[in-house]
Structure formats: structure tokens, C-alpha cells
Amino acid sequence: MASFTPLQRLVIAVAVLASFVTFLDGTVVTVALPAISRELGGGITTQQWAVDAYLITLSALILLAGSVSDAYGRVTVMRIGLIAFGIASVAVAASFTPLVLVIARAAQGAAGALLVPSSLALITAVMRGEVQSRAIGVWTAFTTAAQLVGPLLGGLFVDLLSWRFVFLINVLPIAVNLILLSRLHLPEPARGTRVDWLSGALCALGLGGVVYALIEQPHLGWASPAIIGTGVGGAALVVVFLLRQRRPQPLLPLSLFGVRNFAWGNLSTLFVYAALSLNGFVIGVYLQQGAGLKATQAGLASLPITILMILLSSRAGRWSGRYGPRLFMTAGPLIMAAGALLLLTVSESFDYWWQVLPAMIVFGLGLALTVAPLTSAILGSIDESRSGIASAVNNAVSRVAGLLVVAMLSTIVGGRLDLAGFHDAARVTAALMAVGGIVSWLGIRRPVPERAPEAAER
To answer: Which of 246, 90, 249 shows the shortest CA–CA distance to 166?
Structure first.
């Protein structure tokens, strides 16, 4: 980070560590899922809820957190989020029933919602233009690496200690970041923004109802009153939430979607991150339950992706700032689609080196080309005064994408994550990636900072 000023380097370090813990905890769980279900029971349903309880509150409250960040200061909100996340992590590690685990994971997601929008908003507030693109590239390299190295760390803890230690990994980065935050002094006057708490509740309850119906319907059936009630009721609350956003000072400023790159970039995010979530979940579980690998070996399977992200992501951020993001946001997902299709070579006679490694290399190359340009195109198109909520919206879209695709896992894999189900998941992953690339080609243009109509009126 030699080209950055001391303040910019400190901001990047704080932003990376704050996002690191949420991304790490979102993916480290994947290799621990078989061990969790063996100890606590519940099979694939417990595994789905261990992931989605976290994603429900993270995705539903991240919009609310973006408004809170803009209203009360990013550093203050980040400090509260870090402390709450640490406490919730200890509660997850101490869980003794599936219900307690799910509740603690939901609390973790709520705390994590305070961290991601604040971290990216710090970058967009201090840096603009090509410097911002480089900074987002650095942020992307490390935070995405956290998502990808998570399964490896989780596997080591599962095999050598216990799955419970998986959720204590983030204690050290939280402590370090709290120290760094004490050294970061930025002018953050209160903006007087009204926080719409009711909209936050509507979003959380609505998503929760829809996800409950999707996860539990294989056991209860679509005709079950519980499935109909929660599914229809949740969808209705989501509709009410969207209608409420027409009011002044909404939680989700719909005017942001009048900015071309923001709208098309978030649509691409929806497909790309749904594919990433599906791929990560399925690989982490199948390589253990289907291929018979240990948790550490399953975590090592994605190491090539991590290496490629670290090597190429910051470069992709610089290239995007120089040449525009459209080419990278198109080529990257299409390359990942090809990588997902290579997983169809996995057979009953499992061989990681010939059946999985080539897919991981191709997938990692595509991911490195995609993430930094995608983030930069979306956030670089919005005025700095709305950077907190813009970041929150983009992160909410990515989490909702993962939330829904994991909730639909039983439908995608035919109720069992065997070899046939693994192949079905690979095909769906490839299709989602391809759509994400096509959407980027159709909609993304070289970003020009724009002020959303609503923000301009203020």
C-alpha cells in the first residue's frame, strides 16, 4: 500500500479487518457443518439453518445498519459491531442444541450487519477515483481471501480440536481492530438522518418467513399450513417493506437504482453471489460426506482460489479503474461458469487432482477478475454522502442471494447431497454465473460518479 497516505492505509486496514471477521465467519462454518450435525443432530436441515440464520439477520439488517452508519458515524457503529460480534461468537461456540446454535448465529449476523457497510463506507469517504479503485481492490483481496481461507481454518479446528473453536477464530482480529479504531480520528458530525426501525423489522421478518418455508417444505410439504402461512406471510411483509420505501428518508432509497451501474451491478451481484454461496456450501459438505475427505482436506480444496485472489484481485481493481469494469465483470463470471462445469468430472472414483483442482484454478481466476471491479463499479457510481447506504444495499443483495440459494438447496440437489446432487448444484452454479456475466455486459458502463435524485434533493 505504498501509494496510499498514512490515513488511507489505516482506513484500509480497519476496513479489511472489520469485514474479515464477517466474511470469515460466513464461510468457515461450511466445513464444520457435518461435525455440527453429528453432535447436535438434525441432518441437512441443521446445516442449512446454521448458514441461513446468520444470513437472514445479516442481509435483512445490513440496510438498517447502513442508515445507522450514515446517521451516527461509521467508526462508532463499527466499534459497537465488533464488540457484539465477539460476544455472539462465544455464544455460538457454547451452543448445546440446534435451537441455541441457530439463535446465536442469528445474533452473530445482526452484529455483522454493522460492520460491512461501515467498512466500505470508510474507504469511499476517504478515497475517490482510481485511488478508491485500488483501495477496494486491496479490500477485496483480503476479505475475499477470508471467505476462501475460512474452510481451511475451519477444517483444521474441526479435525484437531472441535467445531466449537471454529467460531472463536475471529477473536484476535476483533481485538486488533478495536485498537486500530482507537487511532482513527475522522470528522463524523451527526447528520440527523432518521433511522427507519420499522422497515428493518419488516425486512427481517419477511425474509425469515420466506426462508423458513423454503428450508422446511421438504419435511412438511407445500400444503402444510405452517409452510403456507410463513411463506405467504413473509412474502407479504417483504412487499410491505418495499412499498414503505416510497416514504421520505427510506431505509432502501429506491432512487439509487436510477443510477445505471448501481442497478445493473446489483442485478449481476444477485446471480454471482448466489452461485458463490451454492458452490461454497456444496463443496464444503460433499467433499466430506460424499468423497470421504477430512475437514482439513475439504478446506484445502479451495486453497488455489485463495492464492489467485491474493495475487490478482488488487491488480484487477487497478485495471478496472483504468479500463472500466465491464470487460472484467463479464469475463470473470463466464470463466467461473466454466470452472463450475469442470466439477461435472467428479465421479464415484474420486480424484482431487484431476477432478477438482482444475475447476478450482479456473474458478479462482474468474473470481479474481470479478469481485473488485464489481464492487468498484457499484460504489464508484454513487455520491460519497450516500456511500454507507449504497454499500449496505450491495452487501444486502449479495447476502440475500446466498440466503435464498442455500434455503433452496434441498430442491436443487433433489433432497440428498450425493454425487447426482453435487452435479446438479454444479450445473445451477454455472447457469447463475453465466447470467451474471451477461447482465454485466448488457448493463455496465465506465462509472461516472452520480448523485442519486433523492440525495440531490437533500
So the answer is: 90
What are the CB-based long-range contacts (under 8 Å, 24+) for 184-193?
Answer: 184/10, 184/11, 184/14, 184/75, 186/74, 186/75, 186/122, 186/125, 186/126, 188/73, 188/74, 188/75, 188/76, 190/71, 190/72, 190/73, 191/70, 191/71, 192/71, 193/67, 193/70, 193/71, 193/249
CA 229 to mean position of chain CA atoms: 28
Helix (H, G, I), strand (E, B) or coil at 19: helix
Whether 192 is in a domain gets the answer no
Domain extent for 283: 6-183+197-453
Asked whether residue 139 is assigned to any structural domain, the reply reads yes
Q: What is the rounded distance in angstroms from the CA atom of residue 122 to the CA atom of residue 119?
A: 5
Model confidence at 388, pLDDT cuts 50, 70, 90, reads low
Q: Which amino acid is at 304?
A: P
Please tell me the distance from the alpha carbon of residue 341 to that of residue 426, in angstroms, as a whole number.
6
**Model pTM?**
0.75
Q: What is the DSSP letter of 450?
A: B
Q: Is 42 left (phi over 0), alpha (psi -120 to 50) or beta?
A: left
pLDDT tens-place string over residues 51-103: 888 888 887 787 777 677 767 777 788 888 889 998 999 999 888 888 999 99
Residue 423 domain-assigned (yes or no)? yes
Round the average pLDDT of the chain to a whole number and report it. 82
For residues 112 and 100, what is the distance between their CA atoms, to the nearest angstrom?
Answer: 18
Domain tally, the chain: 1
Q: Which residue has the higher pLDDT, 159 or 302?
A: 159
Domain at 243, CATH number: 1.20.1250.20
60 HSE (CA, 13 A, CB side)? 32
Rounded distance between C-alpha atoms, residue 53 and residue 29, angstroms: 12
**Using an 8 Å Cβ cutoff, are 265 and 378 in contact?**
yes
CA distances from residue 351 to 114, 347, 452 in whole angstroms, order as listed: 42, 8, 51
Question: What is the tens place of the pLDDT at every residue in 40-63?
Answer: 887 777 888 888 888 888 877 877
Share of the chain above pLDDT 70, in %: 90
Q: Which of 364, 357, 363 is nearest to 337 (CA)?
A: 363
